[in-house]
Write a structure and sequence with these properties.
Shape: elongated
Largest sheet: none
Structural class: mainly alpha
Radius of gyration: 21 Å
Number of strands: 0
Distance between the termini: 33 Å
Order of helices and strands: HHHHHHHHH
Length: about 220
């Protein structure tokens, strides 16, 4: 029973970190501007008569739309593209609910561990957190290596869309507004950054989890 709650806590933390990093990237105007510049998106839209500042405004409104706080820029996307973005917003809404649920599960699990283990709770949590973090770290490192390769990313990209967009409304002709605004490299680089951020955080947990209980007890003794 204790092992089950410990692993549930650790997995919830890992899932929460991954989803939180997805939101950090997906909702960052600064990240969009950097990618638009390095991927030539600004230049592409300048040829279409849209200035950099106008494109930044469109990106901001798209971010707000994905967060459920506004509507898509009027006249930018066609009907099929807007329908796909509606599906994307629904997926982000689901991700947000899963993130909240992960936090609740982690809180319930750690409270139960404390009730069961008492003074040994910290060490039990640290052990399970280190095991889960190590497993997720290996998965994320392998995932990052796969995403760096174009064919590896393409397989992941297609598989992801087939699972989460079963209606098949996620393919658009080359040169369309949505593919010009968000080229495939945009998603590859975003996915790689998210996995690397998450891997770094998992590595921190692997390193500090064996020591955190000793540090906590030392501080507690000093206060006493």
């Amino acid at each position: 029973m204790l092992f089950l709650f410990s692993m549930t806590f650790s997995i919830s933390i890992a899932v929460g970190i991954l989803l939180a990093n997805i939101e950090i990237i997906a909702y960052s105007s600064k990240y969009y501007r950097g990618e638009f510049s390095s991927l030539g998106v600004y230049s592409e839209f300048e040829r279409r008569g849209i200035s950099n500042s106008e494109l930044d405004e469109y990106a901001t409104r798209i971010i707000l739309f994905l967060r459920g706080m506004g509507e898509l820029p009027e006249g930018l996307l066609n009907q099929d593209e807007e329908a796909h973005m509606e599906d994307v917003r629904a997926l982000f809404s689901l991700s947000r609910r899963v993130l909240i649920l992960s936090g609740m599960i982690a809180a319930i699990s750690v409270s139960t561990i404390i009730l069961i283990s008492g003074q040994d709770a910290c060490f039990e949590i640290a052990r399970s957190l280190r095991k889960a973090s190590t497993i997720f770290l290996v998965i994320l490192i392998l995932g990052s290596a796969a995403l760096m390769h174009p064919s590896g990313f393409e397989m992941a990209f297609i598989g992801f869309h087939r699972i989460f967009f079963p209606r098949g409304n996620w393919t658009f002709p080359e040169g369309s507004i949505i593919t010009s605004l968000f080229p495939e490299r945009f998603f590859q680089r975003a996915a790689l950054r998210i996995t690397l951020m998450s891997a770094l955080e998992m590595a921190v947990f692997v390193l500090i989890s064996p020591r955190m209980c000793h540090i906590f007890r030392r501080r507690k003794r000093r206060k006493l």
